[in-house]
Design brief:
Layout: H1 2-17, E1 41-45, E2 51-54, E3 65-68, E4 78-84, E5 87-92, E6 98-101, E7 112-115, E8 125-130, E9 133-138, E10 144-147, E11 158-161, E12 171-175, E13 190-198, E14 201-208, E15 218-224, E16 231-238, H2 239-242, E17 248-258, E18 261-269, E19 278-284, E20 292-293, E21 313-316, E22 322-326, E23 331-335, E24 349-351, E25 358-365, E26 368-375, E27 384-390, E28 417-423, E29 430-437, E30 447-454
Antiparallel strand pairs: 1-12, 2-3, 4-5, 6-7, 8-9, 10-11, 13-14, 14-15, 15-16, 17-18, 18-19, 19-20, 21-22, 22-23, 23-24, 25-26, 26-27, 28-29, 29-30
Bound molecules: beta-L-arabinofuranose.
Beta-L-arabinofuranose is lined by residues 191-192, 207, 214, 251-252, 310-311, 358-359, 378, 418.
């Protein structure tokens, strides 16, 4: 570790000499004026040798900062978000929340906890060089992060105190290097993932990607007990072989279960004649197929509604009523009939929220319905997810509530969108599946599927997702 400290000291001195502030990265700092914002760090107390830690791994706003034995867990990993003026927020990796001087208390001894990122001055820290270590001074209070009362005990709170240059205010920044690099949740090229849970297992139904013009014909199913280790169940439907009215463009499916049967909603196009996409439904006795075209004709024919007939998704409420969502260019929403393969056309509602492009998906939590969609073109690195809320699964929907998933160039993550969301049964833990440009060298037809955590704020709003290079740990 002396070598690490030497690197930090050199970097900090250079930055301080330039009249700048801060110094955070130990490795791969391109220049003295640049900050490595894509790096996660452990922050180790010089005095105790313990790691800064969000207590009990809580993801709730208000959970306190303390010191603990170095476990390598994500509640002990932090990164630095530039607030300008030489200050940074310190973001906890497991929760996405940032370190906050609680209640704007400028006193010595105030609580330091994690909170929603509001970029308040009580969340902004200057990282000062201190004998080869880093000292974090809060912009609002002028106090330094401080291991309270010089304790060496795990569990001791980290508070703030007048900067005094003591070892209990000095910390070593250790880059986390155990990610193993970027890797997708599903190996290979898969996009538009529809995630769900049936009878003890999670399932993913994606587009098979990597074809020019998204011309693939096959759908596959994957299942997992822990959202990390996925079993490939092979091809469950091939539109070229199994569907009379389509021979390509097997895009972005959705799925639902009713009375022991599984209904698979999919889009398909033709390579000649009228090539517009249409939306169909197939049925099986198993979530892993094989699926058979239920109608022998499209459920939604090209031209029946505004925009492209693609991107189906189903939400089923607690009473067992299912709703179908689809559309590109406009979002169409309708209750499905009990047979799951038809609907009353007079009931179709159409929405076109500002920014809406495609990939409607709906969930319900605590009586609020969340309608999510993707903005921009899937070939753009700015493909991203926004959402609206309602007290009904068919709206009317609020104005767009804010982007909840977007690229993170600092991590090389681009083109994040076409999401779906699943709740771990019996918990308030939620997971978002989405695709991004494959890393490296991906683009709008070479995309890969990820699963990350999705959190709600106390007011029910959705917290922006932190896209990770390598996904979540097994649940
Ligand atoms: O994968 C083909 C198309 O790209 C999907 O239908 C859209 O949502 C976009 O992701």
């Amino acid at each position: 570790m002396p070598q690490l400290r030497r690197r930090l000291a050199l970097l900090v001195s250079a930055l301080a000499a330039a009249g700048t502030v801060l110094a955070i990265a130990l490795f791969a700092v391109p220049s003295a004026s640049a900050v490595e914002t894509g790096v996660w760090y452990k922050i180790i107390s010089r005095h105790s040798g313990l790691a800064l830690d969000i207590r009990d791994g809580s993801t709730e706003p208000g959970a306190e900062l303390n010191q603990w034995n170095d476990t390598g867990a994500r509640n002990q990993q932090f990164r630095f978000l530039d607030s300008g003026g030489g200050y940074h927020r310190i973001q906890a990796r497991h929760s996405g929340l940032v370190l906050d001087v609680w209640n704007w208390n400028a006193d010595n001894g105030a609580t330091i906890a994690q909170y929603d990122d509001l970029n308040g001055t009580n969340q902004q820290w200057q990282i000062q060089e201190s004998g080869g270590y880093a000292t974090f001074v809060n912009r609002f209070s002028g106090k330094a992060l401080d291991v309270w009362e010089w304790s060496t005990e795990p569990g001791t709170r980290i508070s703030q105190y007048d900067p005094a240059g003591g070892a209990n205010q000095q910390f070593e920044l250790v880059p986390v290097s155990d990610d193993g690099g970027p890797s997708p949740t599903l190996p290979g090229l898969f996009a538009d993932p529809n995630i769900t849970y049936f009878d003890g297992r999670y399932y993913l139904y994606p587009t098979t990607d990597g074809y020019p013009g998204w011309s693939g014909t096959q759908y596959r199913a994957f299942s997992s007990a822990d959202l990390v280790n996925w079993t490939d169940h092979g091809v469950i439907l091939d539109v070229a072989a199994d569907v009379s009215w389509a021979d390509n463009s097997a895009w972005a499916p959705g799925i639902a279960e009713k009375d022991g049967k599984y209904y698979f909603y999919f889009s398909g196009g033709r390579s000649s004649g009228d090539t517009r996409k249409q939306l169909g439904v197939a049925v099986s006795d198993s979530p892993t197929g094989p699926f058979t075209d239920a109608l022998g004709h499209p459920l939604v024919s090209a031209g029946s509604y505004a925009g492209q007939a693609i991107d189906p998704a189903v939400f089923t409420d607690d009473e067992g009523q299912s709703y179908l969502y689809w559309g590109q260019g406009a979002s169409h929403q309708v209750p499905l009939n009990d047979d799951m393969v038809s609907f009353d056309a007079s009931q179709v509602r159409t929405y076109d929220p500002p920014g809406y492009n495609e990939a409607s998906f709906v969930i319900e939590r605590n009586g609020t319905y969340y309608f999510m969609w993707s903005e921009n073109d899937t070939r753009s690195e700015d493909y991203r997810v926004n959402y609206a809320t309602s007290s009904s699964p068919l709206g009317p929907w609020s104005a767009p509530a804010g982007v909840i998933l977007q690229k993170d160039p600092s991590q090389g993550i681009l083109g994040t969108g076409h999401n779906s969301v699943v709740q771990a049964p019996g918990t308030d833990q939620w997971y978002i599946a989405y695709h991004r440009f494959a890393i490296p060298n991906g683009d709008g037809t070479h995309r890969e599927t990820m699963v990350d955590r999705l959190y709600f704020n106390a007011d029910g709003s959705i917290r922006p997702v932190i896209p990770t290079p390598g996904g979540i740990d097994p649940i």
